[in-house]
Amino acid sequence: MDLLTQGFLTSLWLGAIVAGVPLLLTGLGEQLSEKAGVLNIGLEGMMLTGAYLGFYIAWQSQSMALGLLGGAAGGLIVACVMAGLCVWLRLNQIVVGIALTLGAEGATALLHYLQFSRTYPRLGSVETLALPLLSHLPFVGRVLFNQPPIVYFALACVGLLAGIYRYTNLGLSLQAAGDRPAALDAAGVSVVWIRTLAVLATGALAGLGGAYMSQIGAGIFVPYMTQGNGFIGIVLAMLARGKPLWVLWGALLFGVCLSLTTALQVLGIAVPTDVIQMLPFMAVMLVLVMFGRRANLPNALGTAFVRGER
Q1: Which of 120, 153, 189, 276 is the most exposed place for a label (fewest CB within 10 A)?
Q2: What are the backbone angles phi and psi of residue 147, rounded to the nearest 5°?
Q3: Cα(200)–Cα(67) distance, integer angstroms
Q4: Does residue 309 form part of some domain?
Q5: Which residues form the domain of 200?
Q6: With contact defined as beta carbons under 8 Å apart, do 281 and 302 qualify?
Q7: Could you give the CA distance from residue 24 to residue 258 in angstroms, rounded to a whole number?
Q8: What is the pLDDT of residue 156?
Q9: HSE of 212, CA atoms in CB hemisphere, 13 A
């Protein structure tokens, strides 16, 4: 493999990881929510809140770990509003989700202006964790196994959630809350609390994905920087048919699309940025046309649970 090709592949995969990890975390969170029967259209707002709060805390504390925790907390705050309005008060999930997204966009842009005016401070370099032995493998070692710890956490979430869905009572309760909430209620399990916990976990993961974007992916916060990633996460969750591993493959696919600009520059090919930014959404439409009919969605998705109703 010549140096030019190696440089292209390295840039492509490194860029795919940087762009794909937020989609992976967000998609896994949305999958949790959808399994429980809640269509979380507010995912974009949760990501954006996590991106701003995570960046601000990391900038103030000079601690990347605190910033990531702050990002998860930001997503959790928005998720609390979502759970209160949609799960407890049984308001329309789509309307509330759109309102939360628009509200988060305006609030984070205003807070950024009040705090930083027209300046855009940057964070320092990101520390990576090289896995013993694996990081020394030729080519793939330094690309895949020398990443920030949050990348390994995201990959671990894939296995953890797959195990929860398949082998635990919690996984069965999540599935029942989305498919047969009345049966779950008759079994003595609170549908409201299962859905609430699912929405809160979704918010934390989406906020963490947003914090990754601002702290590790860009090192800077820019208003509206999520640019539709939350909606791509919704598509990933819908097409994954309840399988976390499929969310991972989808996130990598869209990550590759987003990273093509940098990779093509290595080969000396100039492609307009706007064209590259269109690719993920073109891929979304193509995937929906090819596999949209096969999406296996819960029967009660988007439907508020009212005890006694069937």
Answers
A1: 120
A2: -125, 165
A3: 19
A4: no
A5: 3-118+146-294
A6: no
A7: 14
A8: 96
A9: 25
Q: What is the mean pLDDT of the chain?
A: 89
Let me know if residue 300 belongs to a domain. Answer: no
Q: With the C-alpha atoms ordered 68, 70, 71, 73, is the resulting torsion angle positive or negative? A: positive
Q: What angle do CA 278, 248, 138 make, to 5 degrees?
A: 95
250-269 mean pLDDT: 75
CATH assignment at residue 232: 1.10.3470.10
For residues 259 and 75, give the distance between their C-alpha atoms in angstroms, rounded to a whole number.
25
Q: Please, are residues 236 and 23 in contact by the beta-carbon 8 Å criterion? A: yes
Contact of 50 with 207, CB cutoff 8 Å = yes
Return the pLDDT at 136. 79
Here the tokens at position 169 are 């009572």
Q: How far apart are CA 30 and CA 278, in angstroms?
A: 23
Amino acid sitting at position 279 = L
Q: Is residue 308's pLDDT more than 90?
A: no
pTM over 0.90: yes
Q: Is 97:40 a contact under the CB 8 Å cutoff? A: yes
Across the chain, the runs of DSSP E, i.e. the strands, are 129-130, 146-147
Residues 6+ apart with CB under 8 A from 139: 1, 6, 9, 10
Q: How many domains does the chain have?
A: 1
- What are phi and psi for residue 254, nearest 5 degrees? -70, -30
First-last CA distance in the chain: 62
Q: Band of the pLDDT at 195, cuts 50, 70, 90?
A: very high
Match 């984070």 to its residue by tokens: 108
Has residue 77 been placed in a domain? yes
Task: Return the bridge partners of 62, or none.
Answer: none
- Is 123 among the domain residues? no
Tokens of 258: 């987003």
pLDDT in tens, 20-60: 999 999 999 999 999 999 999 999 999 999 999 999 999 99
Q: What is the largest CA-CA distance in the chain?
A: 67
**Three-point CA angle 41, 43, 48, nearest 5°:** 135
